[in-house]
Design goal:
CATH topology: Four Helix Bundle (Hemerythrin (Met), subunit A)
Oligomer: single chain
Shape: flat
Number of domains: 1
CATH superfamily: Cytochrome c oxidase, subunit III, four-helix bundle
CATH architecture: Up-down Bundle
Number of helices: 10
Distance between the termini: 53 Å
Number of strands: 0
Largest sheet: none
Strand content: under 5%
CATH class: Mainly Alpha
Order of helices and strands: HHHHHHHHHH
């Protein structure tokens, strides 16, 4: 009876089982995450070891780090994990619309985190004069957090492709070109949105009044704003119903595997946030 129950569970994901009773895709993802865990463990340990024995004349992390901004980006990343969990639950129940919105929200939160990291890196380099090569703190910090940022960017790209895949129409075998243009449009929209937001933040910081800041912002980012509106229209056009799609609860294991990766990235960031940022202020 237990074997029959396990088989029924596997059939819910429509994925062949292994001798362990775990779907192949999930088992492969767990194996990858185990190796990635050791990789991040080495980077975090290296940073902590050098922080225990800092070189003379090095930068003081308390004068460099901004816990307020990092706390905000941490909260955003944790909320993205919630939306990813909702996307998995929605596709397992066959609720494709809810799954799409949850994926889009997760992508949006992931881009906010990346935007905060880009802003933070720029601030550290130009204002705090901490680069990858001029201090041991910068070397270990940028290597560790930059590697994590690359993982988040890969996750955002994966989520984007998963979202676009959910529009594949079953009756159109040549749907690949449409999917490709849809993915390119969404990626351009995300990049332009990131550029516009960073431009607005920069204008608010450099100009003395809100009027001058918005005037400088619209003047400098007019082309990016136009491209953003154009790609937004393109996303609505690609999202129009065109028939029965192939993406349903059969693909729940794909979304679940993506969810495992995203949750792992979030957990790693909690460890990084604690070990790199919080320990400096305790």
């Amino acid at each position: 009876m237990s074997a029959h129950a396990a088989t029924a569970t596997i059939d819910h994901h429509h994925d062949p089982s292994t001798s362990t009773g775990i779907p192949n895709k999930k088992l492969l993802m767990w194996a990858f995450l185990a190796s990635d865990c050791m990789f991040f463990g080495a980077l975090i340990s290296t940073h902590l070891i050098y922080r225990l024995h800092p070189p003379a004349g090095g930068l003081d992390p308390k004068q460099v780090f901004s816990p307020e901004l990092t706390s905000f980006s941490t909260f955003i990343l944790l909320m993205s994990s919630l939306m990813m969990a909702l996307a998995v639950t929605a596709i397992q129940k066959g609720n494709l619309k809810s799954c799409r919105w949850s994926l889009l929200t997760t992508i949006f939160f992931g881009m906010i985190f990346l935007g905060c990291q880009v802003y933070e890196f720029e601030h550290f380099v130009h204002d705090k004069k901490m680069t990858l090569s001029n201090s041991l703190l910068g070397t270990t910090f940028y290597t560790l957090t930059g590697t994590h940022g690359c993982h988040v960017a890969i996750g955002v790209l994966w989520l984007t492709l998963m979202y676009v895949r959910s529009f594949k129409v079953a009756s159109r075998p040549s749907w690949f070109n449409m999917q490709l243009f849809h993915a390119i449009t969404l990626i351009l929209f995300l990049l332009l949105n990131l550029k516009v937001v960073l431009g607005l933040v920069h204008a608010l910081q450099t100009e003395p009044t809100f009027g001058a800041a918005f005037g400088h912002f619209f003047k400098g980012e007019a082309l990016a704003i136009g491209g953003l509106l154009l790609t937004l229209w393109g996303l609505f056009w690609f999202a129009r119903p065109r028939g029965t799609v192939q993406f349903n609860e059969v693909n729940a294991i794909d979304v679940e595997s993506m969810g495992l990766y995203w949750h792992f990235v979030d957990i790693v960031w909690i460890v990084i946030f604690t070990a790199v940022y919080l320990l400096e202020f305790l």
